[in-house]
Design a protein that fits this description.
Cytochrome p450, three-stranded antiparallel beta sheet, two-stranded antiparallel ribbon, 11 strands, globular, monooxygenase, Cyt_P450_E_grp-I, Cyt_P450_CS
């Protein structure tokens, strides 16, 4: 599906995904990463904090007390709005706008197994629908890019910085195709993965009342409201909870690499150009590295420091996610704001099934009832069924 994108005008948008950071290699990858890095420097990321907090609170205000809510959907809406605001600025509006909805739609279709099983451009098929949506995405992205280029100013968003970025050696700017590729990849990586990391973490906390109580104690001892950037550094248990959640239920459960030269792996000779799939999930569940790997145990991180081959929810090495710092700040702020205001109670006897090709998400969403924070954490514990029980130890 991706290897023949030059054969048809309809599949031309695939080229843009191929020139994002995920699709370029060697010198081009290093060159593009250097151009993108300033948009994700710590100082720039910290500047997004106030906008994040405003969007998060706006979404949380929509929750209805003592009513059920699909927390997976809530987290998707929340992270989509944060991603569109920080990526595109004011061009997409306060509700995510057409750009965010189009990109989310394409991401959903790309991760749907029906799309790859029947890659035929025939009306009625998921693949045909995806091509239609990708064409609309290109059209919308080009409109925003050209509008920002014409203004020639830094609006404080990622896209503005990418448009103004110049290679230190050549002085060249990113082409429209390259900008389209980076925008698509950054949005998908920064929105879908964070939404699922948050969903899985809130689910795990709902089933581990003692850990949740200890975490709220920590939050209340440090915070008087939404966390500042400085206060985030004073919340070690929050960081351990997130690390353990992303270990046991990694939002991206696998990765792929291509050999750049002939090599041998576990006794197998692999020629140059061989595609190798790496299971992040299996790596995070190796019992020699993580004793009792199916146990949700944030305490293991008090003294344990794995190397990049043992723990890599954001990938590792030269290919580590460029937005990892941004994602961690967002996840920490969301969890702190949710837990300080609400108790989310799992609705019993519902199936929690892992789903997805690229990103691991709950197949049927994550329905939970919303309550004001009353510390009744033992309510809603247990009653979980589905294949999530193969991945993590849960109360009966």
């Amino acid at each position: 599906m991706y290897r023949k994108h030059d054969e048809s005008k309809r599949t031309e948008p695939f080229k843009h995904f191929g020139v994002g950071l995920f699709g370029v290699n060697s010198h081009t990858h290093r060159q593009h990463r250097q151009l993108l890095m300033p948009a994700f420097h710590k100082q720039r990321i910290n500047a997004y904090r106030d906008e994040m907090v405003a969007i998060i609170q706006s979404v949380l205000n929509e929750l209805q007390i003592n009513q059920p809510a699909d927390i997976a959907k809530v987290m998707r809406i929340l992270t989509m709005r944060v991603a569109t605001k920080t990526l595109f600025g004011s061009d997409v509006g306060e509700e995510g706008g057409s750009s965010g909805r189009l990109l989310e739609s394409v991401g959903g279709l790309l991760s749907n197994s029906k799309t790859s099983l029947l890659p035929f451009d025939i009306p009625g098929l998921h693949y045909h629908q995806m091509l239609n949506q990708m064409a609309l995405v290109d059209e919308e992205m080009l409109r925003i890019i050209r509008q920002k280029r014409a203004r020639g100013t830094d609006d404080g968003d990622v896209l503005s910085m990418l448009i103004q970025a110049r290679d230190a050696e050549t002085g060249l700017a990113l082409t429209e195709d390259e900008l389209l590729g980076h925008v698509s990849v950054i949005f998908s990586a920064g929105h879908d993965t964070s939404a699922n990391a948050l969903t899985w973490t809130l689910f795990l906390l709902s089933q581990h009342p003692e850990i949740t109580a200890n975490l709220l104690d920590e939050l209340e001892s440090v915070l008087q409201g939404p966390p500042t950037v400085e206060q985030l550094q004073q919340l070690p248990l929050l960081e351990r909870v997130i690390k353990e959640s992303m270990r046991i239920l990694p939002p991206v459960p696998w990765n792929a690499r291509v050999t750049s030269e002939p090599t041998t792996l576990s006794g197998y000779d692999l020629p140059e150009g061989t595609e190798v799939f790496v299971s992040i999930y299996q790596t995070h569940h190796i019992s020699e590295v993580y004793p009792n790997p199916e146990k949700f145990d944030p305490k293991r991180w008090e003294s344990f420091e794995p190397n990049m081959f043992e723990y890599n929810p954001f990938s590792a090495g030269s290919r580590i996610c460029i937005g990892a710092g941004f994602a961690m700040m967002e996840i920490k702020i969301v969890l702190a704001m949710v837990l300080m205001q609400y108790r989310l109670q799992f609705l019993p006897n519902l199936a929690v099934e892992r789903n997805g090709i690229i990103v691991m998400s709950p197949k049927y969403g994550m329905p939970m009832s919303v309550h004001k924070q009353d510390r009744q954490f033992s309510l809603g514990v247990g009653g979980v069924w589905g294949n999530v029980r193969e991945m993590v130890q849960l109360p009966q």
